[in-house]
Amino acid sequence: MEVIEKAVAKSLLDIKAVMLRPENPFTWASGWKSPIYCDNRKVLSYPEIRENICKWMAEIIMKQYPDVEVIAGVATGAIAHGYLVAHILGKPFCYVRPKPKDHGTGSQIEGLLETGAKVVIVEDLISTGMSSLAAKNALVNAGADILGMVAIFSYNFNQARKAFEDSNVELTTLSNYDTLVEVASETGYIKESDKEVLKEWRFSPSTWGKTE
Does this model's pTM top 0.85? Predict the structure, then answer.
């Protein structure tokens, strides 16, 4: 798994799906200052990387959840990745909206989902885990049996780890923030002196970079 973690981290850096700027932080929609910005939708524009990532996710699912019956993607970032994984596995696919539609049928889940279906959720990015677990709750409310969740990348926040544990959801990610920082250092993407700054952010992301 370590080989895959490093390969995915390097690919994300190479195509700028992940960018690191410890000296000129990004501002997230939440207002948090962050030395990292991740947009895994860029993976879709690079066929070889896209194929590898979806293949690895499919392999993890078949190994850990051989009884899976449906793959569910989380809108919007993981719809395409989830569909591609479902296609590789030859399984039905559905996706979960952040909230029910305010028109038509008012559906939150798009696609066929039979009551009691064994589902694995595909995500592109895990930050705090709240939106991912909200999607899980929507699926459970629709009658799904959630086997686990597989994602491309996680920031490895303690908050997210605890949220998944409390929700009793097994999470597997292809790569993660700690591996990314190591790969970025090994390849010269960041200076050695940046490593500690980047590590500090992960432990206190909501207050990092703020001045009194």
Answer: yes
52: which 2 tokens? 């590898």
Distance between CA 99 and CA 194 in Å, rounded?
39
Q: What is the DSSP letter of 44?
A: G
**3-class SS of residue 106:** coil
Q: Give CA–CA dist 61/93, Å, rounded.
A: 14
Question: pLDDT category, 212, cuts 50, 70, 90?
Answer: very low
Q: What is the pLDDT of residue 211?
A: 55
Q: Is the pLDDT of residue 11 over 70?
A: yes
What is the pLDDT at residue 62?
98
- Reading the block at residue 132, the tokens are 């991912």
Domain boundaries, the chain: 2-203
State how far the Cα of 80 lies from the Cα of 51, in Å rounded to an integer: 12
The gap between the terminal CA atoms of the chain, to the nearest Å, is: 42
Average pLDDT over residues 175-183: 96
Tokens linked to 117: 């279906």
The CATH code belonging to domain 2-203 is 3.40.50.2020
Of 175, 157, 159, the closest CA to residue 167 belongs to 159
The residues with which 26 forms a beta bridge, in sequence order, are: 34
Contact indicator for 98, 142 with CB cutoff of 8 Å: no
